[in-house]
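Forwarding the complex inputs:
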Amino acid sequence: GQNIDQPTEMTATEGAIVQINCTYQTSGFNGLFWYQQHAGEAPTFLSYNVLDGLEEKGRFSSFLSRSKGYSYLLLKELQMKDSASYLCAVTGGFKTIFGAGTRLFVKA
Amino acid sequence: DTAVSQTPKYLVTQMGNDKSIKCEQNLGHDTMYWYKQDSKKFLKIMFSYNNKELIINETVPNRFSPKSPDKAHLNLHINSLELGDSAVYFCASSQGFRGGKADTQYFGPGTRLTVL
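Prediction (whole assembly, two chains):
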């Protein structure tokens, strides 16, 4: 079957670093995405990995290990505005499967 | 300029009614999608069109019928609305697939449907 697992909630402190993990089992693989979704808003693109390794983009980095079916999103220098849901999504064939999302709470 | 737009943003209606949601993208993308996000925040694919051709049709009641008059538009018509249809419906678009790599999806603002 197809499955994406990520923690339901995480809490971190402003200025800290947080790592959100994602494990997946899907048929076919064309890439793994991370999206950010603030409450009441649409998901917006954060990162894309198709090869193993780390992709860095400012305060955000994403890592992929295809052999382990594993990815993580690393957020550095957390800001209050980073409080949101983070969705892990895997595309295989024409279809993208989304995880349920990890709600991140950033506290002062 | 809005990249992916949806109308209406909010829709409140009675059980049994028929309603439509419209989506337009001005990104020149070939592929468009409809997703349903329920109260538990699961974002689930319903339909996908590539160049006006249906390529994904998930296990969705046949009360839901998508229509793509051209590759910039993908509308969703829902017949005989039920309480369980209450959710946020997101339209998205992407360039599609190039060289075996998937392309980023750009989401519309969502349509919050409430069925009473």
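Chain B touches chain A through 25 residues (CB under 8 Å).
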